[in-house]
Design brief:
Length: 430
């Protein structure tokens, strides 16, 4: 593999594109060791959980005119996006618990968490910037019972957190511009996390130093482990913005499962049509060159609150789910927090009802039930044919091969070895 990388480094400009084009055309994604057509796997990847923003409540727009504010372009529904509360988390867990997969286990939801917040708050001597790390929350975003609801969902094996971001924006830019105008200063004091130009103030932007990003990731990894009792298993970059430097950093911190590779927006690539071609070829090359990383492709979108035609969103997601299964892939469903956590309860209800309809549709035939997995299970099955994961108070071991396999478990709390029969699932107490 080093020889391949050396060859690439020696190729200039257009030659590199030609070389990558050949690689992309002759290389197919590995089929792995699992018959995904038979397994019919479903994974839910949901971004933005734990983010103390965009607004603490919709009341802020009753007092201030958002037309005077210029944070950038966001879908309309995001203007009232807010931090989840205990009821929203509990209701989602109830929905997950309402269906069961072919392995006799309920569905599981994978929220990708934002772990830190900056809040401009009034202190004894005036307003100051305060930092909060999950599970601590800014004053404007207090949510009684939230942590209890999250922990209950985790204990029941219905809520399986992964990592999304430290801030979800470049903190240096926010500190520089959040107080730059009268309207921005007032909104910042009110707990609004948007700021002028925030649409393009990317957390993982190429202008941010590797040293700062490494420091933030190290700190976030510790926050995650303390909050959820295990290391980060997979990651989804905020705003879909990342490049090769970021992937190398994730890998150096032990994070090898990367969500949303197809949706990646690499700021180092060319703009326009040339950039789209380059992106496609580079993604193919990355699959070949970075075998130590597992790239998970989001191939189903369940984003009902960003459209008026909810039925069409549901229909398309169900069709894409079956397309993924028929093509020999797990169905990886993208569904953002805004579908389930919002200041407008009608938005929340729309998202919840659509998720329920999706789950009931894929589980309506008892002879062809799906199996609900999390990212780390998919990655292990893809590369080893076997997997293990702790969901709540249970260890779930899977052997998707045609022979008996040993599965070694090494975690913070124990080291154990199991013999698992071919094409079977073992569930035991943790």
């Amino acid at each position: 593999m080093k020889n391949w990388k050396s060859m690439v480094a020696m190729l200039p400009g257009l030659s590199l594109l030609v070389f990558m084009g050949v690689v992309g055309l002759v290389t197919v994604e590995s089929a792995g060791l699992v018959d995904w057509r038979n397994l019919r796997a479903v994974t839910f990847q949901s971004d933005d959980w734990g983010l103390a923003g965009f607004v603490p409540s919709a009341d802020v727009w009753l007092e201030y005119n958002r037309e005077e504010f210029h944070p950038g372009r966001f879908p309309e529904v995001y203007w009232e996006s807010t931090l989840e509360d205990s009821l929203m988390v509990s209701r989602l867990c109830d929905i997950m618990a309402s269906v069961w997969g072919s392995d006799g286990l309920p569905a599981v939801f994978q929220p990708n968490y934002v772990l830190s917040s900056l809040s401009y708050e009034k202190g004894p001597t005036g307003y100051v910037w305060n930092r909060y790390d999950w599970p601590q929350l800014p004053t404007a975003y207090q949510r009684p019972g939230l942590l209890t609801a999250v922990q209950h969902g985790i204990d029941q094996g219905l809520w399986y957190p992964e990592f999304h971001a430290t801030w979800h924006y470049d903190p240096t830019i926010r500190l520089e511009v959040a107080l730059s105008s009268d309207i921005s200063q007032k909104l910042t004091k009110a707990g609004v996390t948007l700021f002028p130009g925030s649409e393009k103030a990317w957390e993982l932007a190429p202008w941010r130093s590797t040293k700062d990003l490494n420091s933030e990731l190290f700190h976030s990894s510790r926050i995650f482990e303390n909050a959820f009792g295990r290391p980060i298993g997979s990651v989804m970059a905020p705003d879909y913005i990342w490049d090769d430097r970021i992937e190398a950093m994730w890998q150096a911190h032990g994070i090898r499962v990367i969500q949303g590779k197809r949706e990646q927006r690499d700021p180092t690539l060319l703009p326009g049509k040339s950039g789209r071609i380059q992106k496609y070829l580079k993604r193919k090359f990355d699959l070949l060159a970075n075998r130590q990383r597992q790239y998970l492709k989001r191939n189903c979108r369940l984003e009902p609150v960003q459209t008026h035609d909810v039925d069409e969103v549901l229909k398309r997601c169900l069709a894409d789910t079956r397309k993924a299964w028929n093509g020999g892939y797990p169905a990886i469903v993208e569904t953002h927090r805004v579908n389930f956590a919002h200041s407008d309860q009608s938005v929340v209800q729309k998202g919840q009802q659509t998720l329920e309809s999706y789950l009931f549709s894929i589980c309506e035939n008892p002879d062809f039930l799906p199996v609900f997995l999390v990212d780390t299970e998919i990655a292990q099955l893809q590369t080893r044919g076997v997997s293990w994961v702790v969901r709540g108070k249970q260890i779930i071991l899977r052997n998707a091969t045609h022979s008996r396999r040993l599965i070694a478990i090494s975690s913070f709390q124990s080291k154990r070895v199991f013999m698992v029969a071919a094409n079977s699932v073992v569930v035991t107490k943790w």
